[in-house]
């Protein structure tokens, strides 16, 4: 008999694999494979712009309509059972290194919810200089 901890670890591995597969497919522009990672009723949210994209049809329409989709390089992946958080460097092809954080919920190996945050680089204010060190 497996323990709950082992079961949770297996689910977390499956969840992370689904998210990683979706990001790889996105970067390779394999839209059918990208879409296969999402549940039919999946929701994607962009809180910074207030957008909510519901359902596979709309998610596919969104990525296909994007004039120049970025490429995402994961820098950290955090997983906890059905939740996967991915920190990325986003390359929009213009030489500006954006940062992003994607929060996914996964059920039965399919992404059911994605919430994505994006930020362009900015200069740190001088008043914080005495407190900062190197990024982790």
How would you explain this protein's 3D organization?
By secondary structure, this protein is of the alpha+beta class. It is built from 3 helices and 6 strands. Strands 2-1-6-5-4-3 form a 6-stranded mixed β-sheet. A hairpin with a 4-residue loop joins strand 1 and strand 2. The N and C termini lie far apart (39 Å). The model has no long low-confidence stretch (mean pLDDT 90).
Task: Summarize the entry for a quick read.
The protein is of the alpha+beta class and 136 residues long. The protein has helices at 4-27, 31-36, 56-65, and strands at residues 38-46, 51-54, 71-80, 83-91, 97-107, 110-119.
Tally of extended strands?
6
Sum up the overall morphology in one term.
globular
Order of helices and strands: HHEEHEEEE
Structural class comes to alpha+beta
The helix tally amounts to: 3
Query: What oligomeric assembly is this protein in?
Result: single chain
First CA to last CA: what distance?
39 Å
List the strand order in the largest sheet.
2-1-6-5-4-3
User: Which range best describes the helical content: under 10%, 10-25%, 25-40%, 40-55%, 55-70% or over 70%?
Assistant: 25-40%
Taking pLDDT < 50 over at least 5 consecutive residues as the criterion, the unreliable ranges are none
The amount of beta strand, in percent, is: 35-45%
Kindly list the characteristics that best describe this protein.
six-stranded mixed beta sheet, 6 strands, alpha+beta
Q: How are the elements arranged and paired?
A:
Elements (H helix, E strand, L loop, with lengths): L3 H24 L3 H6 L1 E9 L4 E4 L1 H10 L5 E10 L2 E9 L5 E11 L2 E10 L17
Parallel strand pairs: 1-6
Antiparallel strand pairs: 1-2, 3-4, 4-5, 5-6
């Amino acid at each position: 008999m497996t323990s709950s901890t082992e079961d949770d670890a297996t689910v977390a591995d499956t969840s992370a694999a689904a998210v990683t597969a979706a990001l790889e497919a996105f970067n390779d522009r394999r839209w059918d494979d990208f879409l296969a990672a999402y549940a039919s009723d999946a929701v994607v949210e962009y809180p910074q712009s207030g957008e909510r994209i519901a359902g596979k049809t709309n998610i596919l329409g969104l990525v296909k309509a994007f004039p120049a989709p970025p490429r995402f390089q994961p820098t950290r992946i955090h997983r906890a059972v059905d939740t996967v958080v991915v920190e990325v460097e986003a390359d929009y092809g213009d030489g500006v290194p954006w940062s992003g954080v994607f929060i996914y919920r996964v059920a039965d190996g399919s992404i059911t919810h994605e919430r994505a945050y994006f930020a362009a680089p900015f200069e740190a204010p001088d008043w914080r200089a005495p407190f900062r060190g190197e990024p982790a």
